Each structure stands twice: as C-alpha cells, then as structure tokens.
C-alpha cells in the first residue's frame, strides 16, 4: 500500500491510499490549500492504525 499525494483540478492538495492491487482504500474528504496540511492528515490516518474497531449491528 502507499499514500498518493496530488493536486486536484482546483489546485488543492489531496491524498488517497492505494492498495498494491490498485484499488483505492481511502481518500481525503477535502482538499487542502497547503501541502503540509494534507501531509498532517496522512500522518493522522497512519496513527489511527491503533484505533479500535467499533462494530454496528
């Protein structure tokens, strides 16, 4: 898997997490004017791997 950081049509930074098979697993919910803000969001997603899973029934 890898994170891809790119600029959208509006010139804002976005990211997506792509699986090795090419499927997109997650994307930024918004565009960021500053690249550093998008990278900060990526870092938050990376840190969330320790988050518990909540199951809804």
What is the overall pLDDT average? 95
SSE succession? EEEH
Instruction: Give the low-confidence spans.
Output: none
For the terminal residues, how far apart are their CA atoms?
Answer: 29 Å
Strand order of the largest sheet: 1-2-3
Radius of gyration: 13 Å
Structural class: alpha+beta
Question: How much strand content do the residues show?
Answer: 25-35%
SS elements, strand count: 3
Helix content: 10-25%
Count of helical stretches: 1
Write down the overall geometry.
Answer: globular
Largest sheet: 3 strands, antiparallel
Task: Give an overview of the whole structure.
- There is one protein chain.
- The protein is of the alpha+beta class.
- It is 23% helix and 28% strand.
- The protein has one helix at 35-47; strands spanning 2-7, 13-18, 24-27.
- The chain is globular.
- The N and C termini lie far apart (29 Å).
């Amino acid at each position: 898997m890898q994170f891809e950081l790119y600029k959208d049509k509006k010139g804002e930074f976005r990211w997506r997490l792509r699986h090795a098979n090419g499927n997109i697993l997650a994307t930024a919910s918004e565009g960021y004017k500053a690249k550093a803000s998008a990278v900060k969001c990526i870092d938050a997603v990376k840190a969330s791997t320790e988050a518990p899973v909540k199951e809804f029934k």
